[in-house]
Design a protein that fits this description.
Layout: H1 4-9, E1 23-30, E2 33-45, E3 51-55, H2 69-78, H3 85-91, H4 99-111, H5 129-137, H6 150-163, H7 176-189, E4 196-198, E5 204-206, H8 210-228, H9 240-250, H10 252-255, H11 261-268, E6 273-277, E7 281-285, E8 291-296, H12 304-319, E9 334-338, E10 341-348
Antiparallel strand pairs: 1-2, 1-10, 2-3, 2-8, 4-5, 6-7, 7-8, 9-10
């Protein structure tokens, strides 16, 4: 009788789902030779929702990962969460784990009579390189507080307290909090989730399309832009979308961290709301309601921003919205090094086309 290990080795492999029709987006060029190519899909939506530029398979379902956080935070604000702007931005963050990030996550807990013991996220070291090295030098290990989603989890627990919901089990898809999150995600994206999974931190994760996610970010950024014109610089936002968008715009260092490209993009592109996600995901919404969305097929993080900047340039040209993408050039590429010296570039390819698919 064959051993269980031998039987498993000869068991038929599980069927592979249909592969998205991705296209080359970004290449690493070393001394004139293409060394590596990152495939993916991309989409730019005008303010009216029209697709003005696309590449690959923008209607293929994918997991947005942490780019869902602004949508989840909108749901929490709709459910009664009220926080100062800096703390609200942290709720929508994949933070680097700096001292200010950890302190503000603790502040959210303190304001609602909670503690780190109420967290249900996974444990991890700080996400930022410098922040992680400093934490390790001081004898730190992986914790729930230093995990990059701790601001979101503090806000989720706080939202439960505000509504009288049980804090324990707040990540269960059947929990009232997660039901509100799903309803909000469906409304903002205009899509029913195509699949349900679990994110790295333990939060329910929905499969959506680049079109749906771009639509959501356009709505959030547009709401923030409209509110910001009338509130005299304060956070007096009339909607949850505006509150979240304004908080992210005014505290980009909370959304990611110093030295992170998402923080830099929001500083360089006024009126934008930007969020990255693991596995090569990037979303950017603009104040007029337009937006771009990128998914790198191999999950390569280095290709995410070059493709995004190229997409923003195409959006500016197609829509005539007056956005100045020139300041973004520095984060739209990266040197390829040899012996510590530049010998090439990581650069976007000419991947965009005008959409002809009526479904877009």
């Amino acid at each position: 009788m064959p051993s269980p290990a031998l039987s498993a080795a000869h068991a038929p492999a599980p069927a592979v789902p249909a592969l998205p029709q991705h296209t080359p987006l970004v290449a690493a060029i070393r001394d004139g030779l293409v060394e590596s190519v990152h495939y993916g899909s991309a989409l730019a939506l005008a303010a009216d929702g029209t697709a003005v530029a696309a590449a690959g398979d923008p209607l293929a379902p994918f997991y947005p990962r942490s780019s869902l956080k602004p949508l989840q935070t909108v749901a929490m604000v709709r459910a009664g969460l009220e926080l100062p702007a800096g703390l609200l931005a942290l709720a929508a963050a994949s933070h680097s784990g700096a001292a200010e990030h950890r302190q503000r996550a603790l502040r959210i807990l303190e304001l609602h009579g909670l503690s780190v013991s109420d967290f249900e996220n996974s444990s991890d070291l700080p996400y930022g390189t410098a922040e992680r090295e400093e934490w390790l030098r001081n004898g730190g290990g992986a914790t729930q507080l230093t995990q990059n989603c701790s601001g979101k989890h503090a806000a989720m627990a706080a939202t439960c307290v505000i509504n009288g919901w049980p804090v324990k089990g707040y990540l269960d898809p059947s929990h009232p909090l997660q039901k509100i999150v799903k309803t909000t995600v469906t409304e903002l994206t205009g899509e029913e989730p195509l699949a349900l999974s679990t994110d790295g931190c333990g939060t329910p994760l929905f499969a959506l399309t680049l079109r749906g996610m771009a639509r959501a970010f356009g709505l959030i950024a547009q709401a923030a832009g409209s509110a910001g014109k009338h509130d005299g610089g304060g956070l007096g936002a009339p909607t949850a979308e505006a509150a979240v968008g304004l908080a992210m715009q005014r505290h980009p260092e909370m959304v990611a961290g110093e030295g992170r490209d998402v923080t830099e993009l929001m500083r360089l592109l006024p009126g934008s709301v930007a969020k990255d996600g693991f596995e090569g995901v990037q979303l950017v919404g603009l104040g007029d309601g337009s937006a771009v969305a990128v998914k790198i097929s191999d999950g390569g993080d280095r290709a995410r921003m070059p493709a995004t900047i190229r997409l923003l340039e195409a959006l500016a040209t197609a829509s005539g919205n007056g956005i100045d993408t020139a300041p973004l050039a520095g984060i739209g590429t990266a040197p390829v090094l040899g012996g510590g010296h530049p010998v090439g570039l990581l650069q976007p390819l000419e991947f965009l086309s005008t959409p002809v698919n009526e479904a877009l």
